[in-house]
Amino acid sequence: MLRNLKVLLAARPNGSVAHTDFSIVEEEVARPGAGEILLRNRYLSIDPYMRVRMNEGRSYAANLAIGDVMVGDTVAEVIQSLNPEFKVGDLATGRLGWQRFAISDGSNLRRIDPSLGPVSANLGILGMPGITAWYGTLKIGRPAAGETVVIGAASGAVGSAAGQIAKLHGCRVIGIAGGERKCRHVVDELGFDACIDHRQQDFAGALAKAVGAGIDIYFDTVGGAILDAVLPLCKPNARIPLCGMIADYDSIERYGIKNLYSAIANRVTLQGFIISDHAELWPAAVTDLAGWIASGAITYRETVAQGLDQAPQALIDLLRGGNVGKQIVKID
Amino acid sequence: MLRNLKVLLAARPNGSVAHTDFSIVEEEVARPGAGEILLRNRYLSIDPYMRVRMNEGRSYAANLAIGDVMVGDTVAEVIQSLNPEFKVGDLATGRLGWQRFAISDGSNLRRIDPSLGPVSANLGILGMPGITAWYGTLKIGRPAAGETVVIGAASGAVGSAAGQIAKLHGCRVIGIAGGERKCRHVVDELGFDACIDHRQQDFAGALAKAVGAGIDIYFDTVGGAILDAVLPLCKPNARIPLCGMIADYDSIERYGIKNLYSAIANRVTLQGFIISDHAELWPAAVTDLAGWIASGAITYRETVAQGLDQAPQALIDLLRGGNVGKQIVKID
After folding, report:
1. What are phi and psi of A94, to 5 degrees?
2. Residues of A in contact with B263 (CB under 8 A)
3. In a 3-state reduction of DSSP, which class is residue A129?
């Protein structure tokens, strides 16, 4: 008899996420009904948005209830199928949650092409984070050769891809990351032109010096004090794709942005987006990204935690900025 | 001998503008040189941006130096001309400053067509504020019939025009203003569907109730706490033209915007703009606005202070929200 392992939301975090906000339960795996599929999750993606879903109320999607399985995308393998569209051994990604097994009618699954790269990459560079980077950089940022692009959380899954995509389009790319180790990775391995450590004392001064004549595009997954430092450095008609505010997620009190006046003075456009709105563009994005990986034009890194019981720690680490590249959990 | 009267910046305001930040001087009028024009200013426009120019440093244009004539647009009459393009009696607007007389080579002047309306309207509905409302509403807001539009500072020169333009395009328009008198004006005279007093205790709750299903366009000249109340009420793909942050201008400490995360969750675009960037569109805007005034489709109001020595008080009043409609000064 297969036993399922599930990580549930046990309590809403009070500021930072704690282990006591989760509970791990074991139960019998349900049987798939007519038209359904039983999947075994192989990899779980750990992403900043999960922190938002742990709160009360709703954001752009409904938040979790206490006792719900934690939300998350996985790479999964079909192990039993009562659905003619899927056969045993097929690989797919979907929002199947923090659990070892899941049942689906197939409607929430996206089939994986294993020839495009390691299957786990479908949670990172070939999945939601990579596609977010592609869309925000190209469709909102609209980079022109010679422009200056600044990337918040440059060593993360989204930022590392966004900066490399901007480089491919002829931009000068400056990353922002926390700590020397990450900054070295961003310059030496990802090929950014520079990376500014936001933990240094005069961060705003160092950023201003690095950008020189000003910022044309700021790819923002961070918000907070970093956005406040960026706004006065923007050039006329700068674009800021907004897709995350990780600086605020784990705080009780949100940061107040004081430099929004610069968005007027510098004619800046800030545009919030949610990548799931743009499903029609995913195939084009994946084709681009897979091509760039295959040719070596862009690279990516994963931080892998071993075992589903390590998922809470992986999320805690991510929110503290502990990961380099895409944070995933390998599920036994 | 003609005597000029000038209002100079005497000191930089420490927070709120005070009378001691200005000095009034009298001097002989200079003579126009070859190709130049001597103009007598008839009306001075009082606008929120002036407060920004009184600060140290620079914004989107250079700020004033201590001792400079205060910056401002006027309606002026040519009284002597050594420039073949202008003859005595011609009327023009230009950034000629807080003074009774000014000399120009003509390059900074825009000719007035007195058939379009009272000449003072070229400082309001037919000038920078009206054109700002036209551009922000139509080019950034892009209103569709049936959409819900919220207007900050709805009784002011820009807001009153923006809301009426949105009404003309079939929108439901909700104003925000300070105090019952202004709110009555906005509904009864300007024809907005509702107006919310931002001085009431539960302003955010009252606004939420008035907007119902959510905001499609927020025309922002205010920033601050009102923008923070608006962001969570935005519908998906809402547009926010940003052209002023009057809430901050007169403060020492700027307000920190805490709800920018809602711009992601609600897929909001915030776009800063400066109307002087779009000079090529001014003739089209003035044609539209003059037509709407002539047909009675839109209306406007002026608050007129008498005498150049009243200009400092007029700016102080404006920044405190004392005016209804366009604040101007009639220069003797």
Report:
1. -175, 170
2. 242, 270, 272
3. helix
Nearest chain B residue to A53 by CA distance is: B265
Residues 99-128, chain B, touching A (beta carbon < 8 A): none
- Cα separation, B230 vs B232, in Å, equals 6
Is the sign of the CA dihedral A121, A122, A128, A133 positive or negative? Answer: positive
CB A39 within 8 A of CB A101: yes
**What's the pLDDT score for residue A176?**
98
Beta bridge partners of A9: A22
Query: Chain A contact for B250, CB < 8 A?
Result: no
**How far apart are alpha carbons B142 and B120 in whole angstroms?**
29
B 59-78 → A contacts, CB under 8 A: 59-60
Residue B161 in contact with residue B298, Cβ under 8 Å? yes
Cross-chain residue pair A255–B255, CB shorter than 8 Å: no
Which pLDDT score is estimated for A57? 81
Element (H, E) at B105: none
Q: How many angstroms separate the CA atoms of A259 and A281, rounded?
A: 33
Residue B251 identity (one-letter amino acid): S
Tokens encoding A233: 């450095």
Choose, out of A237, A260, A266, the residue to mutate when testing the contact with B (most B CBs < 10 Å). Answer: A260
Give yes or no for a contact between A270 and A137, defined as CB atoms under 8 angstroms apart.
no
In A186-301, the DSSP E strands lie at: 194-197, 215-219, 234-242, 269-272
Collect all residues of chain A within an 8 Å Cβ-Cβ radius of residue B229: none
The backbone region for B247, taken as left when phi is positive above 0, alpha when psi lies in -120 to 50, beta otherwise, is alpha
pLDDT at A59: 72
* Nearest neighbour of A223 by CB, restricted to B255, B260, B269: B260
* Per-residue pLDDT band at B234 (split at 50, 70, 90): very high
Residue pair B187/B194 in contact by the 8 Å Cβ criterion: yes
Contact B257 A256 (CB under 8 A): yes
Q: What is the mean pLDDT of each run of 10 residues along chain A (332 residues)?
A: 93 95 96 96 97 86 93 97 97 97 96 92 96 98 98 97 98 97 98 98 97 97 97 98 92 93 96 96 96 96 97 96 94 92
- Yes or no: say if A33 and A54 are a contact pair by the CB < 8 Å rule: no
d(CA A177, CA A152): 7
